[in-house]
Amino acid sequence: MTGPGYAVIDLETTGIHPGRHERIVEIGVVHLSPQGHVTGCWETLVNPQRDLGPQRIHGIAAAEVLRAPRFEQISGELAELLMGRVIVAHNLRFDAGFLAAEFARCEVTPPISHELGLCTMTLARRYLPGAGRSLADCCAAFGISIDNAHRAIDDAAAAAHLLAGYLDLDPQSLTWSQALADASSLPWPRVQHPRATWCPRGHARREEEHFLTRLVERMPDPCTPELHSAYLAILDQALLDRHISVTEADALVAVAQELNIGRTAARELHTLYVRELAKAAWADGVITDDERHDLLMVADMLGLANHEVDTILETERTSPSKPTLYHGSFHLEPGDLVVFTGDMSRPRSEWESAAAAAGLQPHGAVTKKVKLLVAADPDSQSGKARKARDYSIPVITETAFGRMLDSITQLPA
Questions:
Q1: Are residues 291 and 311 located together in one domain of the fold?
Q2: Do 161 and 309 reside in the same domain of the chain?
């Protein structure tokens, strides 16, 4: 991987300043020969172990990075991809700053800075006078298309083609030969960290298997009703916002394994859960379209087919009985503390104002007294989200919170 040439990089990050809290969430690297020919491409998501910042810009979901490697786990291979090569980026000051900060967290100080590489944005002043400075503007001048802007490997590839365009315009410039000579002589430290497989965005987005299939088949287990109730309680909390996040699915699998609940028993409990919801829905003698939609949605998340829901509804219609399990016991009351985390679709101040108008108390930190955490992404790995899960505080989406606020405001005064 080492040798003369260029390593063109692009990063997606949680913020704009490589300070203490902002982290890299995706890396793209493209190798160019000294003549500007592409010789290799690499990419990976990076688990920043915090919230992902402006997800509406980079489009990365927290579920995608949960199983992605941490930076220190890819730092060794990344160093091998960069050493001996001229590091290039569009706005190198930004990318070099983040890389240097991440390596510093690994207690490694490689020769990475905006002064030790080439910046295609800065070079545009020489080769594209009058053009804009954005990557899109510079690429447009050469007719270079960017397939997926704000995906690291696509932006890195665009910057690589841009550099190749500069090389074609001025092949005899001493800028290139001097940069190549300097890069080949820079000393790189050894990076000794456990390695993990790189995880490209497309690979991470493959459809997750249903969490029920991750449970082992067991003989009918003698699990007591109390243990079944413990599993159902976790299930009820996970379904509070009618969305089972990857984190919640992992928790359900862990609880089932801890309680020795196998796949068959879990499926029976899921059927019981839907049956109890159906009983509650029939309490007034009518199943509305919204109630049926809710039952079908829950059943789908629990691995039950639509026809099974129809059977359950018909059984409870003809042989009605009172629910023996109480679903939906969670509800917000005036004075409850609610915490928000992540870069939401609506400004956080608006959500806090709406919560306050409903009689809730927006709070800045997660404590055991907090009733609910509202997250921009329910799989968020922010400190607040991790603490909420430690305290068994529900983590829900902002959409679900909006529905809860509607139910509060509809209550009689």
A1: yes
A2: no
